[in-house]
């Protein structure tokens, strides 16, 4: 669609459709080249709108991606909670449920790292509040599922677990998705091999480690001697 | 110093001194307002140079902060390795050694999150290589200390541990240092209380959990039924 074809959306339905188109474009571009590099102009160009049209819907690029992060949290829990429930009683399978549902969501893993560092700093406090309220609800869903599946875990353990797996997914995703020049560097320098990370097995192993650590603390208090 | 006072540094010593002044200014500004917001112009203004003078020493702001991250890794290991050694045999004290030495280095914790996400993407592949070589040496120092202090841990466990504590320190630091508008939001909304994090105890608890998890896997293989 040429920029000149743009007409202002009039109805509520039209406005919602425009908004959805912008979010879909942002999602597609971020999956292709990483959240960090996508600008408002990229989003506008992709759907054939002028940048000013996009700015009528979203105050900043951070607002676009914070909305995708919000949707991403609900979508992750919609998959993760039943996967945890069907793994009840088995720490390794619970870890697999958490890690697999994250691995299947590369954009969400990318967004997890950007949310506190970049996204929450580029929007209004009201937008952060809306985001936080929904995230905290999703965290509660996670905690309920994890403590039901592994009853030795306390509520605090469940919160620590979701904090840890999100930190690990976020960090491992960034490290395992370097820019092409850095990836080429790794390929040409075998002694940099330890700097490379295979995301899915690393996230699974780390998630299992955290669960085993939380369980071991409940079963045998750590030695203090 | 007024910008007009600037004279190009001629000797190797003068050049090193200029470079050190720029790094010191970047460190001071980043500690005061966070790595994310410090620009090359801020650094230049702080030391009374023109921005073009700073650009003769560092290709981008990312190059400045990648150098501070490099120095930060060596500085962390200089403190962490002896602290781990003096905690040998006690998982909780090893966790304390790791978490305390990170907590004492707020700029490094901030930089840890920025390195893969932002810093490595704003410099040449050569600069990334120099950074990686030094980081991998520091990781080796960590692994040797951790496996000596807790001999049930394998080398792979040591690498998983340093990956996890860096991911946790980075993520917890960002979450526990929101912008002032977001901090005000937390204070005024008690139901957002679970979104706030107290960095030092959270990092200690998470580090201990990961160590206990790694140890429990070595002592009793996880159940697969």
From TrEMBL, chains A, B:
Residues 39-58 bind DNA. Transmembrane segments: none annotated. It comes from the Bacteria. Gene3D superfamilies: Tetracycline Repressor, domain 2. Keywords: DNA-binding. Residues 16-76 form the HTH tetR-type domain. One of its GO terms (molecular function) is DNA-binding transcription factor activity. Pfam families: TetR_C_34 (PF17929), TetR_N (PF00440). This is TetR family transcriptional regulator. It comes from Planotetraspora mira.
